[in-house]
Amino acid sequence: xxxxxxxxxxxxxxxxxxxxxxxxxxxxxxxxxxxxxxxxxxxxxxxxxxxxxxxxxxxxxxxxxxxxxxxxxxxxxxxxxxxxxxxxxxxxxxxxxxxxxxxxxxxxxxxxxxxxxxxxxxxxxxxxxxxxxxxxxxxxxxxxxxxxxxxxxxxxxxxxxxxxxxxxxxxxxxxxxxxxxxxxxxxxxxxxxxxxxxxxxxxxxxxxxxxxxxxxxxxxxxxxxxxxxxxxxxxxxxxxxxxxxxxxxxxxxxxxxxxxxxxxxx
Length: 266
Hints:
Strand order of the largest sheet: 3-2-1-10-9-8
CATH topology: outer membrane lipoprotein receptor (LolB), chain A
Strand content: 35-45%
Order of helices and strands: HEEEHEEEEEEE
Oligomer: single chain
Largest sheet: 6 strands, antiparallel
Radius of gyration: 20 Å
CATH class: Mainly Beta
Number of helices: 2
CATH architecture: Clam
Shape: globular
């Protein structure tokens, strides 16, 4: 059987000084309001989309580089709710700690793995994406790979946001790309919501649409605390209703320890 479920993360970032998009109760953490930053986009009736893109991409780059220096606790749960409309009760849970070894290399240590999936195949690619958390972040490095089109302003809860559609300029073999929309806070110029899924899609390898929520860590960085997908995947023969939830907690910044010893004078 070649049915697979590939986990890909998209981002929702909170906004400084105002209410961020609602976080489910199970994802709430001890987050503090971010420090207010001055907008980098000109104050004008008709905003320049290129200025907005440049500003939020710089912040995405800073977030992503910092995230790679943190250890954290991760719980991933995948559920099959139905196949072709017939209810199923399949569940798999993977609890892991992402830590740093003495040589500074990140390592995934599985604490517990329970349950099983019978209607879909959970592949090594799925596990790799979960373990390494390759979130869709429009960093300055990724930005040239995408076309962004400004489509106006909308509210996300209490936030006024610029809305952009995102689509890859081209698709090369061996990697996946994001296609969807992002919402950028019009005051602090941070991405507050991203909704979409990876492309290309294949008949026996379908990809659900994800939403991920971030909260502030160490009074500076907005990191993922909760990722969720609830989609019906249309395979060649079957329609499978999948629900997935991933939580991240106990973020701790890695700090290398070095001991300097001095020989006594001779």
